[in-house]
Design brief:
By secondary structure, the protein is of the alpha+beta class. It has seven helices and ten strands. GO terms for molecular function: amino acid binding.
Amino acid sequence: MAVAMAFANFLLHSRAKVVVNQPFSFCLDTNQLHILYKERTWRLSPYGTKIIPRASPATTMEDEGYNDSDTIPTPKVIIDQDSDPDATVVEITFGDRLGALLDTMNALKNLGLNVVKANVFLDSSGKHNKFAITKADTGRKVEDPELLEAIRLTIINNLLQYHPESSSQLALGVAFGVEPPKQQVDLDIATHVHVYDDGPDRSLLYVETADRPGLLVDLVKIITDINIAVESGEFDTEGLLAKAKFHVSYKGKAIIKPLQLVLANSLRYFLRRPTTEEASF
């Protein structure tokens, strides 16, 4: 315990990049993930995590001191499948309030993951904690959308638990936070869908909408249900917003304009809200 606290204290006060080259050994938890959100049960299997019904304001290892009068920064969780060919890169930012995230790394081990590299850096937007993650059983990057979503929700759950003030900036704060967002997630956040050409062999799909549990899995399912392949991408949670960028193709080629329209309309229908934008191509 003393070693862990000393390491956490070092990360909190050091402004240099910290690199962990030795992998953490994690084990698999086969519990089902059940998330109750707005009286609806979202089921992601077979990866398990726990959603804390109401976050405790008590200070913990992952907390840094803050003043109640401070402006609450926007929490960001990025799941990046593009930047590293061998690992899934996860980046977490919450102003300068994040500590060593030892509890988050311990939570990720229950998903059957190894953290093969971790680093922390500072810039004008705050402290960025980045992890390169692989599956413990194969040593490869995470490809399963359900496991990627479980990673995302595990991180958000820890934010709500160890930084309860973040609940006012997160969609899950509506049901599980000490203070829900002031915006009405279903009414105040517009949906945007765009498809761009990205060379002869693939297209770039961009989706921006209100966040909710299971969204990453649902987006991938809608795309693949119309026989479009998702090659790689990035899924960002920025406060109440979810932003997805997917490299997609149809039979190894870029998506032609009529199919782009089918894809965009399918996503708009699924994500339909009063302010959904009608994009043009």
